[in-house]
Amino acid sequence: MTLGDLGAPKETRAEVAKRLGLSTSLAFFPVRHQSPTCAAKLEAFLPRFAPDVILVELPAPFEEQLEALLDPESRAPFALCAMTEGKSPRFVARRDEIRAAEAPRSRAYYPFCDYSPELVALRYAKASGAEVRFIDRLSPLPEEETDAGEDDLPSAERALGERLGQDAGAWFGRSRFTAALCVRAGARDFDELWEALFEQGGWDETPEGWALAVGAYALATRRTFGQEELEADGTLFRERFMAAKIAEAAAQRGKRVLVVAGALHVVALGSARETLAELRPAPREDVDAEVRLVPYTFPRLDALLGYAPGMSGPAFYQHVWEARAEADPFAQAAERVLLETIRRARAEGDALGPADAIAALAFARELASLRGRPKIGRAEVIEAATSCFVKGELRVSGRRVIAALGEALRGSRMGKLGPKAGPSPLTRDFRETAEALGLLPSAGPPRGIELSLATSRKARRCSWFLHRTAWLGLGFATQVGAGDAEGFGAKGAEGDPKPQAFTTLEATTERWTVAYAPEVDARLLELAAEGASVEEAAARQLARAAREGEGRAGAIAACVGRGVRMGLEAICQRLAPALKAAIHADEDPRSLLEAARRLRRVRAQRARLGLPKAAWLDALGRAAYEAGARGLGRLAQTSGARASEVPALLMDLGGATLADDGMGPARELVLAKARAAREIARATSPLVLGALDGLLVSLGAGHGAELGAHFEAARGRPEAKGAYLEGLLALSPRALLDEPSLLEALIAHVSSGSFEGFLASLPSLRRALTRLGPRELEEISSRAAKLLGLGAAEARIVSPLPPEEVARLSAWELRWLEAEAAWAGSVPEPNR
Amino acid sequence: MAESVLRPAAEVLFRDELDALAAADTHPKPRGFRLSPRMIRTFILGSGEAKLPRPGGAGEIAVTQKFFGDDALVERAIVTLASPRALLLVGEPGTAKSMLSELLAAAATGTSLLTVQGSAATTEDQIKYTWNYALLLAKGPVREALVPSPLFAAMREGRIARFEELTRCPVEVQDSLVGILSDKVLRVPELEGEDGILFARAGFNLIATANARDRGVNEMSAALRRRFNFESVRPIRDPRVEMALVEREVQTQLAAAGASVPVPQDAVELVVTTFQELRAGRSREGVHLDRPEAPLSTAEAIATLHAAALHAHYYGTGRLGAEEVASHLAGAATLDAAEDTAKLERYVETVVRDRAARHGGPWGALLEAWRKIGRER
Ligand SMILES: Nc1ncnc2c1ncn2[C@@H]1O[C@H](COP(=O)(O)OP(=O)(O)OP(=O)(O)O)[C@@H](O)[C@H]1O
Ligand SMILES: [Mg+2]
Fold this sequence. Notes:
The structure holds two protein chains of two kinds.
Chain A: H1 10-20, E1 26-31, H2 36-49, E2 53-59, H3 66-69, E3 78-85, H4 99-102, E4 105-112, H5 117-128, E5 131-136, H6 156-159, H7 171-174, H8 176-185, H9 190-199, H10 207-222, H11 227-232, H12 235-250, E6 257-262, H13 263-269, E7 290-295, H14 298-305, H15 314-322, H16 329-347, H17 354-370, H18 378-389, H19 394-397, H20 399-410, H21 425-436, E8 447-452, H22 457-471, E9 477-480, H23 504-507, E10 509-514, H24 518-526, H25 534-548, H26 553-565, H27 569-585, H28 589-608, H29 615-630, H30 632-635, H31 646-659, H32 667-684, H33 686-698, H34 704-713, H35 720-731, H36 735-738, H37 740-751, H38 755-769, H39 774-787, H40 803-823
Parallel strand pairs in A: 1-6, 2-5, 2-6
Antiparallel strand pairs in A: 3-4, 3-7, 8-10, 9-10
Chain B: H1 10-13, H2 15-24, H3 37-45, E1 52-53, E2 60-61, H4 71-81, E3 86-91, H5 97-109, E4 115-117, H6 124-127, E5 129-131, H7 133-139, E6 146-148, H8 150-157, E7 160-164, H9 171-174, H10 176-183, E8 185-187, E9 197-199, E10 205-211, H11 222-226, E11 228-233, H12 239-256, H13 265-280, H14 298-314, H15 322-333, H16 338-359, H17 361-376
Parallel strand pairs in B: 3-10, 3-11, 4-7, 7-10
Antiparallel strand pairs in B: 1-2, 5-6, 8-9
The complex binds adenosine-5'-triphosphate and magnesium ion.
Magnesium ion binds at residues 97-98, 164, 209 of chain B.
Protein name (chain A): ChaN family lipoprotein
Organism (chain A): Polyangium fumosum
Pfam family, one (chain A): DUF5682
């Protein structure tokens, strides 16, 4: 299908030609924002039309940034970022000295790359001396989602354009006219249709022919929308403003005016050319937005365009643009992308070579031709790569190729700003915030800071800021005594049997050192494209880290914890669906319980800081605990070194169940699953079996007689008994006291049976007993003595044992001492 | 049409369509092909509203759509067939891999019958050639004594050969394809001179299919994998498309069986929705579901509904209702694993129950029928 097949009736074409008026002194050129073909057509049209005034569909307040935009030392992509005060502050702001740190803002980005028609027009204006005016209102744009799939590994399905049931959301995408055209053009959605008709399909057109075809399409589309619809979404409001701006420019006699604006607008604006003279001048825009030019990146551009995330192909388009003077820029771009894909996939270990590139290029060409498309488009490149490079099932074997392809299409190009743009907003934000919080030390030695989070709101804000800078790796702040990788303070580290033991004060006091060094600015420069503020950059990187967790619940939960510490609860809440999905999909109970434990810590930390309860957090924690509990059977299959992590996980599960605080799992569920899991653990790991027994006991559902029997039955390896006891006591330290059968079994093991057996089990027994406190130990030894028939006091004086037994015991003791000397140092520390 | 045959070959079944397409074909054809890629596409994906003149001058014919749900896949498959590489269709059972390969072969080079059926017992002879031993003894190794394999024949005649279930063959046997596919030459060392070497004529290519659940394509040798372009065939994702197809197929099959049972829309919707949701592991309301082991393919949906309809016809009221659907659903999901029954049970007791409570209608009827069957079991 080509432009000619659009099927617009002759009258429509004539009407469009009249509205655009490309040969009159007020011409309208339709554009789409990031479109290499459009940019090339406009570039060819401009010198021929030679406008005196160029009117561009950009918010009028952006005009002040024109110099910066056209700085010859700037390199695209860059974006104009409009920052407005948010309407509903996320926390109550005290308008005092820390204002900068807390001003909640919404940001909208207007990105430009070399093939943005608007930028082409502006650059032409600068070269030719034409006057430039921006004619749009600054209307609130949807805020860029920080967690949009910019670094997403595009899934195989999406790579092949399967977006069933998803509508493009945008104007064109919504129209029935588009839907019908898609069917006729064999396009899967609006993006592919646009590409087929106007990018690859429009390249060989003249600029006027291209503009007419786009105009005809736009007019037909526009006719499928009712006036009310256009009024409701603010389109007509904006167009009235634009019309007034156009009227002002057109009033200058003898000037040739060119309007460069979205296709759907120009077909409407062009129809009103006769009535323009009657319009009142446009009101001045009073906006309280701050506008800054920021560097931008291809990955972010890619996410913004949103064609099958990761596949919208800024780099592909850049290649087309750079080859625009040559015969078939699309084939060249396709070749570059395919070669780059092979290079990247090879680096990851795929056996692909130049022959594959040749095959894929031929494939892409044939596929385009079968589809009646005159040039190779993005869709054909993607499909050529998946068909020719993936040697196996796409889902299983396609990961590397798809990732490589995504990167090759997307590119990693990062924009740079010339001196006219001034320091980057990120640098400015960092300084303003640090200053406002009183954190900016003179370039002297590191300064210590202590923050009591529970009592001071300012301290909390400082903490957020410092955590954010640390996360961004600015080299500005270091937390002191943050032994835990999660920064909850030195105590409460992994495996600590009593994580709640540290005091509230300790938990809510943070110590930091801050120091300013030039490296901080260097790093800020590196991060300039990550956002306009420290908060935004941290949020973006956090969202990325969560995606890199690749659906593992534990990893995403860690990000949630980090986000809470950075005061980025909004992002954390946006991670909630991903975490929820990961909890559903994650089949590893270890990762699930780990995630649950992390979430519980986040909950505890929030509670200590006096933050309100968060229902979303509780729901996630509960889901993770319950999914983890359902996986206890699988957990029970763990043996060997990994089994040693199980008691801590179960301990937390037990604690959460008992807490019954909305986050803990249902007790019945845990009991049922733990009982079932015991059956499995019997055969795999005495440690895990003990821990499961301990869990049941701690939940009030253990049976005394069972414990003794399980201890008895733990054989096989010498350390089995100790391991069982260790697991049990880890969760239920009083079991030896409360369950007589267990103590009896222990005594029986110690006092009968071979010495070798006893000796071999000793290290693990000792490790198990370190779980107990001194009082418990004392009580146990006195009971043990009683069971052995020794009175606690006289045991050492009078031995009721026959002489042979005494001799045997003293021999044992001797060898025991020897053995212990040999073990010195090899006995594992109880608190790893 | 060869009506007495249970299942005629695609080129026979659709002879009229193929003839009409050939007559109307003005696009360039790859060497050795009967139809241009565009016409092959039309043959498989249908001519839509458009009709083609019948070659004999007697009226017009519409080309029916035969494969549903992934037009781009068909286009890619056609492009591969016209390229030096062979095509490997891989996917879950019942996703129409065999059907697609048959249609492609029939349309491109006129026959779908040059087929090797792979299995653990497949030998290299079956892939290349064997001998007529009587002739071999009488005359020695001569051309007439050679019995060509389907692949041999395809090379000689410039046609597309098919290889069903390639990955079921032993890897060494699979590897006898490497030489054939890379050089497009088959050597017969026993024969002398020109007879000892067979150059494939233009048009020759190979379509293999592989079941994603079998010993995987990952076990294929790297050398052989390089000779193929892989296409993953997946179950149809758009429920409306799948419903339309299932309804059409069931009706065709019932007509062929001489059973006149109406197939109500509701029954189709119940079966297809259930299959789709279990396959995806997620209901449309977002409820997380355990995926059954049994492949709940479109083919399985057709078979389930067909069986339910036949049951209604022969044993029931002649009406295909919720009860028949319920009992055959249970059968479909429990073919493979006992656990599947539990998964289906859970699906009914969560998703179906919810829908029954909220909307009643066919879902309510299904729930009721399911529980009734459960009581009888
Ligand atoms: N996408 C589809 N379009 C049309 N028919 C389909 C589709 N998917 C399944 N079917 C139906 O399913 C039937 C089964 O297909 P076929 O036997 O070709 O599957 P297969 O993938 O080869 O399965 P197996 O791996 O078991 O050999 C087809 O004949 C057709 O009726
Ligand atoms: Mg098959």
